[in-house]
């Protein structure tokens, strides 16, 4: 018999930027209870079940940790970037109402997003070849051209046009 999983780790696309300038991306969300969805309706600032603040209050109740923050309040949820709020809303929906396959797919997509971010960081940190530096021999002993910048619709540098003999 398997135990019921009640908490799930998440990684925000951008991260919560706190007052000290620290970014908090990793967190833990627990499954919602009926009380988590009903209690906020008693809040005097909530005008109806369609009130957008309802989402903020519910998420503040179920997000257990965000980065080094052990207490997540509506203040932190309100100050998330829009992409992060949308991500948490989707995450909440999947872990509370999705099938095990839905949950697994979301967690796998999150892991892939983290791997891609790590690859992008590694590419940004690696030294770029200098256009002045001659090409270095590759593993097969043949000199390779330095990588060209990705096309952006405009040329990044003057490119040599190969001449053809007539």
Characterise the protein shown here.
The protein has 166 residues and is an alpha+beta fold. The chain has one domain (7-125). It has helices at residues 34-38, 53-62, 74-78, 82-97, 100-125; strands spanning 7-17, 23-30, 63-66. Strands 1-2-3 form a three-stranded antiparallel sheet. A hairpin with a 5-residue loop joins β1 and β2. The longest helix is centred in the C-terminal third of the chain and has 26 residues, at 100-125. The radius of gyration is 24 Å and the shape is globular. Mean pLDDT is 84; it is low at 147-161.
Note the total helix count.
5
Strand fraction equals 5-15%
Strand order of the largest sheet: 1-2-3
Q: Could you spell the SSE succession in H and E letters?
A: EEHHEHHH
State the secondary-structure class.
Answer: alpha+beta
Task: Give the tally of β-strands.
Answer: 3
Task: Please give the domain count.
Answer: 1
Main sheet: strands, sense, barrel: 3 strands, antiparallel
What is the average of the pLDDT values?
84
Binned, the helix content reads 25-40%
Poorly predicted regions are 147-161
| Tertiary shape | globular
| End-to-end C-alpha gap | 78 Å
Indicate the radius of gyration in whole angstroms: 24 Å
């Amino acid at each position: 018999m398997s135990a019921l999983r009640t908490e799930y780790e998440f990684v925000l696309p951008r991260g919560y930027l706190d007052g000290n300038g620290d970014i908090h991306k990793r967190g833990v969300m627990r499954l919602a209870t009926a009380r988590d969805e009903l209690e906020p309706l008693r809040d005097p600032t909530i005008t109806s079940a369609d009130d957008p603040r309802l989402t903020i209050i519910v998420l503040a109740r179920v997000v257990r940790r965000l980065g080094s923050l052990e207490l997540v309040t509506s203040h932190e949820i309100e100050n998330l970037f829009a992409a992060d709020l949308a991500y948490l809303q989707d995450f909440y929906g999947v872990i509370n109402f999705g099938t095990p396959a839905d949950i697994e797919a979301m967690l796998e997509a999150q892991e892939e997003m983290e791997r891609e971010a790590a690859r992008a960081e590694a590419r940004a940190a690696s030294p770029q070849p200098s256009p002045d530096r001659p090409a270095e021999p590759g593993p097969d002993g043949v000199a390779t051209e330095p990588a060209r910048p990705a096309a952006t619709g405009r040329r990044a540098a003057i490119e040599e046009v190969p001449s053809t003999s007539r």
